[in-house]
Amino acid sequence: MHFVLSRTAASALALALFLAFSGCTQTRVLTLSSQDSRDEINLRTAGRTATLVLRDGFQQKVEGIHIAPDLTSWIDPESTNLRSAPTDDVVAVRFIRSGHGALLGFGVGCALAAVIGTGIFYATSDTSDQRASALLGGPLVFGPMGGIVGGIGGFARGSRTVYRTSSGANN
Length: 171
Fold this sequence. Notes:
Elements: H1 7-22, E1 24-30, H2 35-45, E2 49-54, E3 59-67, E4 71-75, E5 82-86, E6 90-97, H3 98-123, H4 128-157, E7 159-165
Parallel strand pairs: 1-7
Antiparallel strand pairs: 2-3, 2-6, 3-4, 4-5, 6-7
Helix pairs in contact: 1-3, 3-4
């Protein structure tokens, strides 16, 4: 039997490779003068290591970020010292969420693998009955495998979240 990769399966494979090497990043622009914005960052970064970026070029992985109206404080993980800077100097806070990345990777992996599997089964089918079963067999056989691979990859890469301040959005 001669195997030909269908155009749909080839496109899905190319998209899968692109997504595997790109990852997901969510960027939000917030105003730190807003209590809701400060609370969101403080809640999302609680118990996580995050990268703090200040206006003067300071950029470091830090722990225990707390953003208050006038002062932002954090713990330097190397020295375990408490450090601080004016909140107006904060340009961005970045962190990685592995669990969110795993869920995204699982979903994308399932979908792409289902499309690829359907294309492969359909392209190798000789009869209309086989082609009809390919529409069900492709997702059932390839979908879970793609979900597992995508979930592992998504967990490893994580989902990157970036909070840029309105003062740092133009930098």
